[in-house]
Amino acid sequence: MADLLTPKSTNSLPELHSDLRTLLLVQKTELISEVTRATANQFNNIMMAITSYAELEMKSASPSQRRSLEQVLSNANRATALVQKLSAISRKQSASHQPLDLNALVKGIGDIIEQLAGERVSVVYNLDPSIPMVNADTAEIEQLVLSLAINARKAMANGGKLTTSTELVDLDKESPGMGEIEHPGKYVMLSIDDTGSGRLAEELSGSVNQDARINLSLAAVRGIVKNAGGCVRFNSEPGKGSSFNIYFPELKPDAQPDGKRNFHRSALASRTILVVEDDDAVRIPTSEFLKMEGFKVLQARTGDEAIHVAQQNRSRLDLLITDIVMPKMSGRQVAEKLLELHSDLKVLYMSGDADEAPASRKADHSRNAVLQKPFRLDALTDRIHELLGE
């Protein structure tokens, strides 16, 4: 910092001001990210309470009441999806590659793309319904698409057309412009085309002024795609618009996730579950639902209370369901203490914080699992059966 505040010459003042602006921008971005993370955590807990009570009411509701409750759940899901997208774009964490449906991703952020494009730009989608999944980080690809949409809007100040397409193509090193392809074969192509000024290459290379807070550089775009095993090709001509093609290796059918598994709900009465959650609005409906499913349920608001309940419980404790972030003692610390009392204990973590959940997934998958709040109660039951081996 001392070097920034003590320039060696008057000629370095522009560079000094630029460095200070960059530093302040980074600090502001980090602050926004932290505030967004904390707000999203609280929001997810609130939505968890709303959806849980709605699901409980649906079990005894009349047909007309069920329709109203289904609307509550549908709109809660929409609100949750919006906040999750905001959190994904703002948070800073290592990439988490997983099977990804590019068509579903584009449709999921379609409203945001159209808002970013503005009223003067016509947004068109040409999505091939037969494309396979790819292996990529959802948050990174969403950020990439939205950044390209922003650049396209800037290039079409007077209006135009923004087209997003998907297609399955065959590529090899002999394909035009595809010398960087490492593994020839089938790739899913994601294309973003505009009819603007054709200055995409300049914008992304940084040769013209741009808003660094929201735009990805060309190097960043290439880095994201390369990490997913893909490559990038773009064409941009002044006055003729820009075309940006991103190629991802197809995910082979045997690597794609199976459909939802069906579990036989039997012999549940003998299973004991301890639910640890400091938010009553989350813990109470979750516990009530599990009781309705046939489990014996114990509850605790804090880590210390959970340990006391476990010590007083004379029967076997089969599963711990705990929030990750709690006052004084975290969910992980609670799990460590309880494993000393019940060595065969399985652990299911709940988290409203998108940055906390991935860290817990590094644990032994046969003994631990993570559910991101807000989740549907049926999803909770399925995950319990997976852990208990039923």
Describe the structure.
- With 390 residues, this protein is α/β, with parallel strands linked by helices.
- Helix content is 45%, strand content 20%.
- The protein is built from 13 helices and twelve strands.
- It has helices at 2-5, 13-58, 63-90, 102-108, 110-117, 138-155, 200-205, 218-227, 280-292, 303-312, 331-341, 357-360, 377-388; strands at residues 98-100, 121-127, 134-136, 160-171, 185-194, 231-237, 241-249, 272-276, 296-300, 319-323, 346-351, 368-372.
- Strands 2-4-5-7-6 form a five-stranded mixed sheet, with helices on one face. Strands 9-8-10-11-12 form a five-stranded parallel sheet, sandwiched between helices. It has a two-stranded antiparallel sheet with strand order 1-3.
- The protein is elongated.
- The model is unreliable at 1-10, 206-215 and 358-364 (pLDDT under 50).
What labels describe this entry?
13 helices, alpha/beta, 390 residues, disordered N terminus, 45% helix, single chain, five-stranded mixed sheet, five-stranded parallel sheet
Number of strands: 12
Binned, the helix content reads 40-55%
In whole angstroms, how far apart are the ends?
59 Å
Residue-averaged pLDDT, rounded?
78
Uncertain segments are: 1-10, 206-215, 358-364
